[in-house]
Write a structure and sequence with these properties.
The chain has about 150 residues and is an alpha+beta fold. The protein is about 20% helix and about 30% strand. The chain has one domain.
Amino acid sequence: MGIAKRGHKLLTKAIEKTIPPLYSQEKVKDPIVRVKFFSPYSSWTWYVTEGQLTEEGDWRFFGLIDGHEVEWGYFMLSELEKVEVKVFGYMLPAVERDCYSSPRPISETEGGKKKGIKAEPQPVDEIPEPQQKTVPQRQTMLFAKEETNDQQT
C-alpha cells in the first residue's frame, strides 16, 4: 500500500494575505469567497470567507460548507489536511484546493446558490475598475460588422 502526497499546498502565503480575519464580515450579506477546498472523492466543498491563524499555528476558517447539508460553519486547515481516502490500495489526500477558483461573492458559487444566497448590489464606489483586456481581432471584426448592419437599417 502506497501513500501519495498532494501536489500543492492547501494554503499558500499569498492566499493567507487575502483572507479577512474572523468576524470581519458578519454584517456582509454576500461575502467574498477567498479560497475553495473540495474533495474529488465526494460532493463536499468548503468555501472560505474568513479565517485567522490560531495560537497553535493552525488556521481556523469560517465559511459555507456544502456537504450533507449546506451550512455556515467553522473548520480547521489541519482537519482538511488530515483527511485521506484509500483508492486502489493508495492512501490519497481527500481534500484539495481549487487552484482555478478566484475570489467571488458567495452568491456566485454552487454552494451559495443551493443555500439561496442572493447577490447584493455593490455601491458604485466599491465596484472594481475593469481590467484592460485585449479583444481578439475576430471579435473586433464582428463588432464592426454589426455597426455596419445597424447603419444600413
